Amino acid sequence: MILKHFYTNFHYLWTGVFFAKPQNLKHMYSLRITALVITSLLFACSASNPSEPPVNGPTQTLSKQFKDYWYDGNAEIASYQLTQSRYGEQRKGSAVWVFVTEDFSAKKQVKLDNPQAAGKDKVSVLKLNALRKFVTGIYDYAIMQSVFTPIEVKQYPMSLKTTFSSQDWCGQSFMQLNYRDKGYEVKQFSYFESEGDEKITLPATLLEDEIPNRIRFNPAELPTGQISLIPSAVYARLQHKSIEPQQATVSLEDFSETESLYTIQYDNIDRVVQFRFEKTFPNYITWWREKDGNQPETIATLLKHDRLPYWGLHDNDDLYLRDSIGMGF
Question: What is the extent of the structural domain holding 121?
């Protein structure tokens, strides 16, 4: 009887929130988010629900500030105004970065369906989904990367997995890196003959693509000086270069009173990458830049950011929320 009473009242909560038409959209948004969070906590069935923070131990101590932010049941969504270099010209576009914690399988290197039953195989990761869209003449590009970096950086010092895909009117390309046996197993598929289907192994080396995750963990621990680094998969694809470790000179300096600047200058390839981010937690990344050889530079500038349980906001009635992250309709 008690359980039936609970479900009856819960049903009315959802019905009232999703079918009522309050005049105040902010009030409606607040009610919907509350209902979504309650659902996630009660049923834990969301396919993208953030993981639980790892238990503090001798290898890693997470601050309350970190836990409260990254394990609050939401994802951080940031939109950027993008100027993308392609074919020797700058193209107007957009970029979206989604940061969210997830329960990940250390062995299978996929998101766990049942974290409670995974035991020691469960690893809490910060996932970055980085998307870019831009137009080249008559046709357009869509690029996406996913990077899975364990929160427990001392126990798992390497990112466990990255994926990359690129789609344009010419065809598709895909690349995946998995950390196995103290190295990265790389699988690459492309419609270009020279880049074809191949499988290689690279030594365990810091990835350019994981730098945004490292910034969000703790900027003070970013490496500086001379390091080995695997360039971005976006660089490899757009410049038609093989992916392999490169020596780079990296620095961390003050950009202003409120922001820091992290610069990567490769020694043997003509590539410079920079990230500008806020000095205070949670260290929002406000700007990033890529410069390859004599090509025009790629620049992204932060427009808006918000924290939302986006996986539950997929109805037509949720379209208005795109404005809160600077995406419009």
Answer: 44-204+296-325
Measured between its terminal Cα atoms, the distance across the chain in Å is: 45
Tell whether 36 is covered by a domain: no
Mean pLDDT along residues 176-205? 93
Q: Which residues touch 59 (CB under 8 Å, ≥6 apart)?
A: 152, 154, 155
Distance CA 299, CA 92 (A): 10
State pTM to two decimals.
Answer: 0.84
CA distances (Å), origin 146, targets 26, 129, 136, 171, 230: 31, 5, 24, 20, 15
pLDDT digits (tens, 9 = 90+) for 222-238: 999 999 999 999 999 99
Number of domains in the chain: 1
CA 297/CA 274 separation, integer angstroms: 11
User: Could you tell me if residue 118 is inside a domain?
Assistant: yes
Cα 287 vs. chain centroid, distance in angstroms? 15
Task: Tell me the two tokens of residue 185.
Answer: 């197993």
Question: Backbone phi, then psi, for 283, in 5-degree steps?
Answer: 60, 55
How many Cβ atoms from other residues are within 10 Å of residue 233's Cβ? 27
**Residue appearing with tokens 């000086």:** 225
Token match 């003050």: residue? 254
